[in-house]
Amino acid sequence: IATMSVFCEVPQAAPVAVFKLSQDFNNDQFPKKVNLGVGAYRTDECQPWVLPVVKKVEKIIVHDDRLNHEYLPILGLPEFRSSASKIALGDDSPAIQENRVGAVQCLGGTGALKMGAEFLRRFYNGNNNTKTPVYVSAPTWENHNAVFANAGFEDIRSYKYWDAEKRGLDFAGFLGDLESCPEHSIFVLHACAHNPTGTDPTHEQWKQIAETMMKRNLFVFFDSAYQGFASGSLDKDAWAVRYFVSMDFEMLCAQSFSKNFGLYNERVGNLTVVARDADNLKRILSQMEMIVRTTWSNPPSQGARIVAITLNSPELFTDWKDNVKTMADRVLLMRAQLKAKLQALGTPGTWDHITEQIGMFSFTGLNPKQVEYMVKERHVYLMTSGRINMCGLTTKNIDYVAESIHEAVTKVQ
Amino acid sequence: DFINRSQDELLTLFSVFHVIHITIHLTWCFCSSWWGGVQMGPPDPILGVSEAYKRDTNPKKMNLGVGAYRDDQGKPFVLSCVRKAEAVITAKQMDKEYLAIGGLGEFTKSCAQLALGNDNEVLKSGRNITVQTISGTGSLRIGANFLSRFHGPRDVYLPKPSWGNHTPIFRDAGMQLKAYRYYDPSTCGFDFKGALDDISKIPEQSVIMLHACAHNPTGVDPRPEQWKEISDIVKKRNLLVFFDMAYQGFASGDIDRDAWAVRYFIEQGHNILLSQSFAKNMGLYGERVGGFTVVCNDAEEAKRVESQLKILIRPIYSNPPMNGARIAATILNTPDLRSLWLEEVHGMANRIIKMREELVAGLKKEGSTHNWQHVTDQIGMFCFTGLKPEQVERLTKEFSVYMTKDGRISMAGVTSGNVGYLANGIHAVTK
């Protein structure tokens, strides 16, 4: 049956870098190997951590005979959608009280970005936005580009963000791009704990960004994947999102509960929609339904149930906030210790950025050659960009990692 | 003095009005929305049925729009094997790390085995790629996207009629929809001649969608001899076959029997695309469990196709949800859970078959002189009654029996407690 295949021309695609890194790490036999690649939380024993509150709630679910596996509504579990939006916008959000906030339950943060992108391409500025510029930060999460490109946007550009020399935010560059970009451009903003740099604008800088975006009629699309995980405080991490809402922007906010709930593989996300008024919201959500229907019909129930039950119970909500703080605190500790050790070793360069940056990731400043050295010679796995996942550090491996960085910086230029 | 003051007051009043006017104007501009031009989307026809049903206060009301299985008490049914699998999984205390883009390995392997049969040569030679998807819809969507990107011809041929969501899924992915004759309203059965005739004219290399079993919405399936002829003509026309199998096990009660057409086509040399759903046969609706398979020429081609499927999936949802796939894999791979599942699937299918028989018996008893044989000839969850829109309307208005305008009823909504009432109603509007 060796007939001509319709797929004989299909080329082999390159593997997704971050997953390939994990694969290589898994295959490595070196006893002291360290994985600072993929963005998932690890305990100090370098183990995945199912949040205690999640375990509790899963038990509740499995023992509740009233629960079944029926289809969720197309837009998702109502209790999940509303409580998730409240987490982002705040309980007392005027926008929520004005009935102009809605949401779509999605498959993780990726799914939320996807739904938002598909909606914008169809409806944002006229009904064909394939040519509308979409701006993502330089650098940004590696999947942002693909999400928008796949949704049909043909013009994806980057706005200045990371200043490699000073190892911080290129704010002047960022503002400059906001001032000079085409009107009505769409901007993907990281709500907090910028991935991959860990560098966030200050409140003052956010205010200027907002002012400029309002003046130039730019569209705000927040990506919020680390709320609570960055500083340990849900409210602190939501400051930028809430500020923009208070400035009356119509906007989208893609929320992920992968990290802050540790529900990575249950694909729990929420696309929060802040509209001008209830009527606009109604029409927007009706169109979102059509997009959802042809993509996944309706979202998976398990993860959303876990989050909804947690957020809607005062006791469990407190438990959750504690669990989140546990994770955030461990990351902050690792940051402090890594910086201290590098300074103690006398490693050339300044290492303040390690504690100034926030969230899961740190842009170390290591160049590709130094990264290669780390991986090949020291079996410390990190992204070519120099991005490390702080969660991969533990009290047991931090000395080895610090020494490895020291060697990489001193031996390789 | 008085007049001057009045003038001043008038001027002040005027200024105030002016300021208010400007403020309102500015506020309006400021408050105009990006989304002013967004139209209200059309209401979902099936959802509309359920909503109207909910509002009805008639105690004898029946919801025959729902595409989900109900037990003989009209309640959702969580399979025992599912509950058992969930207990096993909970006890294992597994982590929640991301799955691979293509999903849970134990699931995709057993998913393919279920469809193709454990001993299938395709599995042995590794020339299939099976990825975990967001149930049947997600599977079809990935398939549509894959075709759009890698298959030259744009045309996808659907049977007439087909599941309502097939069209928008393929259209959204950039494909063009055409149709081949399928349902014969004069017999409420399969228009075999019409199908063969239309298929024989389909341009080479076009995609043809086939419902593996329990055709949705008609419940009309080809017989094995008819499938054989369809396979021949499809081969002659060099068409790319895309099977949608959403009801394996649920149609006849026998998983191998329901997969017969899929396996036959592969045997005959068709390198098919296949979408599977575990929504109905495992009752895992809301967990979104499905699979998408491409049967390739060899393992090397399968690897290339796999790499491209991953590229397609990543920008949509990164990787699939664990819970349902874990349940399905546990059931399929644990011998006594698998046996229990087969029993329960058999039970669900049998209940449906029994309701079909009782409905026909009930209609006879009512004195109906029409030929209702199609009700028992058709298979699966749905039945195309043959009722006309006016009759459907009467059935809904006078008897509170809710169904879609095309005369389709979900047999799952029929119970031994209400089948008599349904027969009575159908007879009343058709006599």
From TrEMBL, chain A:
Locations listed in the record: Cytoplasm
Is Amino-acid biosynthesis one of the keywords? yes
Coarsely, its chief localization is cytoplasm
Give the EC number(s) listed in the UniProt record. Answer: 2.6.1.1
Q: Name one GO biological process term.
A: aspartate biosynthetic process
- The question of whether Disulfide bond is a record keyword is answered with no
Which PROSITE patterns does this chain map to? AA_TRANSFER_CLASS_1 (PS00105)
The protein's GO terms of the molecular function aspect are:
L-aspartate:2-oxoglutarate aminotransferase activity; L-cysteine transaminase activity; pyridoxal phosphate binding
Q: Which cofactor does this sequence's record say it needs?
A: pyridoxal 5'-phosphate
Subunit structure comment from the entry:
Homodimer.
Family affiliation: Belongs to the class-I pyridoxal-phosphate-dependent aminotransferase family.
- Output this protein's name: Aspartate aminotransferase
Organism expressing this protein natively: Sander lucioperca
Question: Which gene produces this protein?
Answer: got1
Automatic annotation (TrEMBL), chain B:
GO annotations of cellular component type: mitochondrial matrix
Q: Where is the Aminotransferase class I/classII large domain?
A: 60-426
Identify which cofactors the protein needs according to its UniProt entry: pyridoxal 5'-phosphate
Where in or outside the cell it occurs: the entry states: Mitochondrion matrix
Which reaction is the catalytic activity of this chain?
L-aspartate + 2-oxoglutarate = oxaloacetate + L-glutamate
InterPro entries under this entry? Aminotransferase_I/II_large, Asp_trans, NHTrfase_class1_PyrdxlP-BS, PyrdxlP-dep_Trfase, PyrdxlP-dep_Trfase_major, PyrdxlP-dep_Trfase_small
For this protein, what is the EC number? Answer: 2.6.1.1
User: What is the enzyme's class at the highest EC level?
Assistant: transferase
Determine the domain of life of the protein's source.
Eukaryota
Q: Which family does it belong to?
A: Belongs to the class-I pyridoxal-phosphate-dependent aminotransferase family.
- PANTHER family associated with the record: ASPARTATE AMINOTRANSFERASE (PTHR11879), ASPARTATE AMINOTRANSFERASE, MITOCHONDRIAL (PTHR11879:SF22)
The record makes one more remark, namely: In eukaryotes there are cytoplasmic, mitochondrial and chloroplastic isozymes.
Which protein are we looking at?
Answer: Aspartate aminotransferase
- Write down the species: Sander lucioperca (Pike-perch)
- Protein's gene: got2b
